[in-house]
Design brief:
By secondary structure, the protein is an alpha/beta fold. It contains 19 helices and 14 strands. The longest helix has 17 residues.
C-alpha cells in the first residue's frame, strides 16, 4: 500500500463512525502519521476501558474493537483496561437508578470471558496488545484479606547465611509480600520499578483540582436531579476514577495517547484529559464513536434490553437476527459493523432509495458480511443457504433440534424446558399473537394448554424451531 492509500485509510479511520474526536493540538494525529512513515519508534498507547459486569461482547461493543484493530494495523498498542475495581461501583452512564455492586468473583469470571472473546477481533500479540486491571493501583496493601492461618515465607541473607521466616499472611508484612507478588505492573514491558498506588491522599489531591460544577454538569446527573432521584457521591467520582486510570496508564506504559469509547463515555474520557493535565502529563486525545442501535432499530444495543447480537452467537442465529433488523438500520450497520467501503455503502443507500435494490437483498449481503467476520466464509455460506431454505422456501433448518417427551406433555412446558421460550409469560404472549405453529402444516396453535400427543415440529416466532418426538 502506497503513502496516498495510507493517508486515505487514516482519514477514514478518524471519520467513519466517529462522533467526536478531541485532539486540540493535533499531537495524536501527528504521531500516527509519523508511525506510518516509520519515523516514530515508541509505542502509541490507546486505552479502552471495560467494566466487566456482563460477559458477552455484542456487535455494539465490536464497533469499538474493530476501530481499535484498525489502529493496531497502523502499529499502535491497545491497552485493554479491565475495570475490576470500578465495576464494584458501577458507571452510572445511561442509568436513572442506582447500580448495585457486583461481586469480585463475578467480575473475574466475566473478565476472563471478555479476554477470551476479544481475540476474535484484536491482535493479541504482546507488541500490539496488553491488558491490566485497575485494582492493581486502587487496592492498597491493607485492603487484602487472605485466608486465616495462611503463612507467607520470606528469605533473609545476613553474613552469607540465608534465613527463612514465616509470617502470618494477614500481618502487614505478609500482606505486603502478597501485594508485591500479585501486582501486574511489574510484568508490563518497560516497567520503571515503582508500583503506582492510588491512596486516599492522592485521590483527595485530585479531587481538590476538580470542581463540583465540572462534575455536576454531566447531562445524566442533571436529569437525575431534575427528576428528584438520588445521586450518590460514589457515582459522581466515577469519572474521576476513570480519569485516574488514564494517568496511571501513562505512568506504567510511558504514555496514554488516546482513549476511545462510545459517545456516552465522552464526559468520562474528557475528565481523563483534565487529570493528566493537572499531573503535568501529555493529555490523551479522545475519540467517541457513534452507538449502534439494537435489533429493535431504536434503543442502544444492550443485553439488558435483549436487543443485542453477540459476537459468539451461532452463525444461523447471527444471520437471522441481522435479517430481522428494520430497513432503517441497514446503512448504519454497514458503516459500523462491516469493512464495506464508504463509497460502496453510499451506493447501497442510494440504490435502496431509488428502488434499484430490495432492502431484503441488502440485508442478506449485510448478514453475510458480518457472519464472515466472526465465523468465516464457509459458515456464512451455510447460514445464508439455511436462511433461504427455511424462510424463503418454507423449509426447515438443517440443524433442527430434536427432543423426546412423553405423550400428553404440555407444549409450553417442553418449550420452556428446552429454552425455546424464556418464561410462561413469553409463551402466553406468543400464543396470543399467533406466533406458534406446526412448522410442517403452518397450522396455528392457539391453546395455552396444548398437549403433545403425536410427533410434531413446532415453529415459534420467526426463527425458533423444535422437533418433538413421542417416546415409545
Amino acid at each position: 500500500m502506497n503513502l496516498d492509500q495510507k493517508n486515505s485509510e487514516i482519514e477514514e479511520l478518524f471519520e467513519r463512525g466517529v462522533d467526536n474526536f478531541i485532539d486540540p493540538d493535533g499531537k495524536f494525529k501527528e504521531k500516527i502519521l509519523k508511525k506510518v512513515k516509520g519515523e516514530l519508534k515508541e509505542d502509541i498507547v490507546i486505552k479502552f476501558g471495560v467494566d466487566p459486569t456482563r460477559p458477552d461482547i455484542h456487535l455494539g461493543h465490536a464497533v469499538v474493537f474493530r476501530k481499535l484493530r484498525k489502529f493496531q494495523d497502523l502499529g499502535c498498542k491497545i491497552v485493554f483496561l479491565v475495570g475490576d475495581y470500578t465495576a464494584q461501583i458501577g458507571d452510572p452512564t445511561g442509568r436513572s437508578k442506582i447500580r448495585p455492586e457486583i461481586e469480585q468473583k463475578e467480575v473475574e469470571a466475566n473478565m476472563k470471558t471478555y479476554l477470551d472473546q476479544v481475540g476474535k477481533i484484536l491482535l493479541t500479540d504482546k507488541n500490539y496488545f496488553s491488558w491490566i486491571r485497575n485494582s492493581d493501583w486502587f487496592t492498597a496493601i491493607t485492603d487484602l484479606e487472605l485466608p486465616k492461618g495462611d503463612k507467607v515465607k520470606m528469605s533473609f541473607e545476613k553474613e552469607g547465611k540465608k534465613t527463612n521466616v514465616d509470617f502470618e499472611a494477614n500481618s502487614f508484612v505478609g500482606k505486603a509480600v502478597v501485594f508485591e507478588k500479585t501486582r501486574m505492573q511489574p510484568t508490563i514491558a518497560g516497567f520503571r520499578g515503582a508500583i503506582s498506588v492510588i491512596t486516599l491522599k492522592s485521590l483527595l489531591w485530585t479531587l481538590k483540582h476538580i470542581t463540583h460544577s465540572r462534575l455536576i454538569e454531566r447531562d445524566m446527573f442533571q436529569e437525575r436531579i431534575k427528576g428528584g432521584k438520588e445521586l450518590y457521591m460514589h457515582e459522581m467520582i466515577y469519572p474521576v476514577l476513570q480519569g485516574i486510570d488514564s494517568y496511571v496508564l501513562s505512568e506504567v506504559y510511558g504514555n496514554c495517547d488516546l482513549e476511545i469509547g462510545g459517545n456516552d463515555q465522552t464526559f468520562n474520557m474528557l475528565i481523563g484529559r483534565d487529570i493528566m493535565k493537572i499531573n503535568k502529563k501529555e493529555q490523551q486525545a479522545v475519540m467517541s464513536l457513534k452507538l449502534l442501535e439494537g435489533t429493535d432499530g431504536k434503543e442502544k444495543m444492550s443485553k439488558s434490553l435483549d436487543n443485542y447480537i453477540a459476537i459468539t452467537d451461532e452463525p444461523n442465529d447471527m444471520y437471522g437476527k441481522i435479517m430481522s433488523l428494520p430497513d432503517t438500520s441497514i446503512v448504519n450497520y454497514f458503516n459500523l459493523c462491516t469493512y464495506t467501503s464508504q463509497e460502496e455503502i453510499k451506493k447501497i443507500e442510494s440504490d435502496i432509495k431509488k428502488g434499484k435494490t430490495n432492502p431484503k437483498d441488502a440485508k442478506m449481503r449485510l448478514a453475510r458480511e458480518i457472519v464472515v467476520i466472526y465465523h468465516g466464509e464457509d459458515k456464512a455460506e451455510q447460514a445464508e443457504q439455511n436462511f433461504i431454505k427455511t424462510f424463503q422456501k418454507g423449509g426447515l433448518p438443517e440443524d433442527l433440534k430434536e427432543v423426546f417427551t412423553s405423550k400428553g406433555t404440555g407444549l409450553g412446558k417442553i418449550l420452556l424446558d428446552n429454552k425455546i421460550v424464556k418464561s410462561n409469560t413469553e409463551w402466553r404472549t406468543l400464543i396470543s399473537e399467533g406466533a406458534v405453529s406446526n412448522a410442517e402444516t403452518a397450522e396455528k396453535i392457539s391453546s395455552f394448554d396444548f398437549l403433545v400427543n403425536d410427533d410434531i415440529t413446532v415453529k415459534v416466532g420467526k426463527r425458533r424451531f423444535l422437533k418433538i418426538i413421542i417416546k415409545d
